[in-house]
Backbone:
């Protein structure tokens, strides 16, 4: 198969591993910077161009769209979808997952466990918002934040009010969430491919830090999930429409709660902690999808 990886840099660990894994399985894999793609939006003949040449003949794409470039990145993915190219994560699913508020609303509608979360526009409603989530300590999050950036733990209601006012003064949209203290600075990152969890690691924050992101000095180790945690991760990815996702959960006193669903999960931490070839599993899922499509097309040609 001819498979395209949409990524800003071919040297990034996850991009490099995906290319290596695809080639090991006999596929022709190419990495393209999606920001350098441009599109011919024409009726009946949509096209994606790169360095003056059309990107045609590809069987599938693997989007690795950065959070800062979601709008343009998903436009490129959508253009490939118009060309009937399979994407492991569809453009609409990526957009859903990137909007923290929208994704939490979707998961809440489906009855998936979440921390108590509040959202407001006016700083005049801060007291009611803090009361809604149970008061301090609580977590204030920028909706557009990634890798732990824009996430603040407020120890008191006064501190929370100050942080909220500062963020709103910058016209930033924020979420306020209950602090799950029983998690003790640890969370779980489950990698979901298709309809199953293929790996899980426990990330633990470094001393003096409550954010467990590996980019912030956290450590990671392989962990065994409970059946409820496994089901929560799979349902979360499925409800957002993602075929390849990283689901971040906390272990609370009332079961697993989902913090975020990532449409471009990094592979370095998960592969390092578990020793699994997750990149290869992504291509295995694409191969199964291709085989299913071929079988369906074959059946449609048979006259009963």
Residues:
């Amino acid at each position: 198969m001819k498979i395209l990886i949409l990524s800003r840099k071919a040297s990034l660990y996850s991009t490099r591993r995906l290319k290596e894994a695809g080639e090991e399985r006999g596929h022709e894999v190419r990495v393209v910077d999606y920001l350098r793609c441009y599109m011919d939006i024409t009726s009946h003949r949509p096209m994606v161009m790169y360095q003056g040449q059309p990107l045609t003949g590809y069987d599938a794409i693997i989007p690795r769209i950065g959070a800062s470039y979601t709008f343009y990145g998903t436009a490129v993915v959508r253009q490939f979808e118009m060309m009937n190219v399979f994407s492991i994560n569809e453009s609409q699913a990526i957009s859903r997952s990137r909007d923290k508020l929208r994704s939490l609303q979707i998961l809440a509608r489906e009855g998936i466990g979440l921390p108590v979360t509040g959202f407001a526009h006016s700083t005049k409603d801060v007291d009611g918002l803090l009361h809604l989530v149970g008061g301090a300590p609580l977590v204030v999050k920028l909706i557009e934040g990634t890798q732990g950036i824009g996430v603040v733990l407020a120890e008191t209601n006064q501190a929370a009010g100050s942080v909220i006012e500062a963020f709103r003064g910058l016209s930033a949209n924020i979420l306020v969430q209950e602090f799950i203290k029983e998690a003790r600075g640890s969370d779980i990152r489950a990698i979901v491919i298709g309809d199953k969890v293929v790996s899980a690691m426990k990330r633990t924050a470094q001393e003096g830090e409550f954010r467990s992101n590996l980019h912030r000095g956290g450590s990671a180790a392989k962990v065994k999930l409970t059946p409820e945690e496994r089901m929560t991760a799979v349902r979360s990815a499925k409800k957002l429409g993602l075929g390849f996702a990283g689901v971040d959960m906390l272990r609370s006193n009332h079961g697993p709660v989902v913090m975020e669903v990532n449409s471009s999960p990094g592979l370095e931490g998960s592969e390092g902690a578990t020793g699994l070839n997750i990149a290869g599993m992504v291509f295995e899922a694409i191969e199964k999808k291709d085989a299913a499509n071929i079988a369906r097309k074959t059946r449609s040609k048979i006259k009963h």
Summary: The mean pLDDT is 88.
